[in-house]
What does this fold into?
Amino acid sequence: MGLLALNRFMSLLREHKGLRLPSKSHNVPIIASLATGSKTPGQYGDNCNGGEEVRYAGPDLPEEIWHHLCSLVPMRDAARAACVCHVFLNSWGCHPNLTFTKETICSKEKLRKWTEDLNDERYSREYNNIIDHILANHSGTGVKTLMLHFHGPSNTQSYNRLNSWLQIAITPVLEELTLYLLSEKSKYNFPCSLLSDRSGNTIRHLRLCNCVLRPTGNLSLRCLTELNLRHVRVAGNELGCLLSNSSALEKLILKHCDDIICLEIPCQLQRLISLEVFECFRLKAIENKAPNISFFGFTGDEIELSLGESLQAKNLSLHHRCVISYAIDKLASSVPNLETLTLRSACEIVDAPTVPSKFLHLKFLSVHIHNWSNGREYDFLSLVSFLDASPSLETFGLFVPVQSKYDWVVGDPSTLRQMPERHHDKLKTVTITGFCRQKSLVEMTRHILESATSLKSLILTTIDAKHRFYGHISVRKCPTLDKEYIRDVWESIRAVKTYIEGKVPPTVEFKAYGPCSQCHAL
It folds into this structure.
């Protein structure tokens, strides 16, 4: 019966968008503004559009079921339902999932005008008034999910207003709170006192952006499973206080939290499986004592990194200067059970050294090199030592910088370097994006073809995917590209034909992508 009622309800919404309101409730103006997006609060009379009432007598169900059905649809659809049905008008005041963004509050026309003039405070004032009204009518009814984008203005009066909204929403039934202050200059202090006692006990997901966070020891976040902080001013010891009160935490994301100098992950976080730290520029060290982290991602300057007893770590993503050398020197011994590794190097000063230990369980390796130091080319053939240290490797992806012009491959293939005989028995898939006729890159590719006895697929891409195909499969023309760049790319394709194709076994699926032959022919 519940599913049948929900289907009838959704059919009603599709057939009767924009119908008159069912009553003279004081909620009507705000609900209508959400449902139709055509007028602003206070512009309505007794009925939306001034017509007759429309009533929908649905199945004779208990009020709790109608409330539940209303909670299954997005906030704007629930507002539309309240415009055509007395039952849903009553349920509107109990809708548990509230999303306050420009897209959900504003009509398309108003959104366009606001986007064109972001400094016009009329739009933010009206936006705030709507939130005021909706939350006031939800006071005490139990909001479970709140997403709120705050557009200012950034002053004490507005921050007090925001505090009053949070005081309404943060109750012992709230499960998910997402608060984004859109101004990066915001100095808003998140009211941590609202998370004390029982009010924070049910929160499972907490996401904050552009605010100040000063947690104290009396927080109660025993159900928190995800903490996501972006551009949040919080010191390392303060964050530690919060984490120590979040024993159920499973996922921690920190982005641009520049007040953290030392990040300590306490051993109490037995359930923490995912840790991501992104460009926290003052960060000097990470010390992890949580025993069960399976994914760790880091982007920023090179730091002192201690992953502790990382026997559960299976997936690492590291992005910093000289990360290839760091991974070879440190990771094999400190993360012995690693299966997936992504390395993004902003700059490599030295070639890949000999690996002191083996990555016995590594199956997927992705290496991105964005630059090299002092005009010196990177010796890609040295990466073979990484392959040698990964006996279980199945997939290898390499992403290299824009075309180099230092050491092109020329002449007889017999002049190319060869590594001592090795066997990469498990390697099945290799992709090289940004392939060019650089000598060491050609040498590495030839080595893989000779030593990877189980290889099934080799894909070489010499140009961005968006420039490949347009000319011969569509009426669209390829974007204009620099002629010298196109000439270099075609030279790389010729190098593939000269030095690579003849080495490809018949059992390997081989593809080499170049520029569109119609739009970028030489």
In short: Confidence is low (pLDDT under 50) at residues 16-26, 38-57, 469-475. The first helix runs from residue 2 to 15.
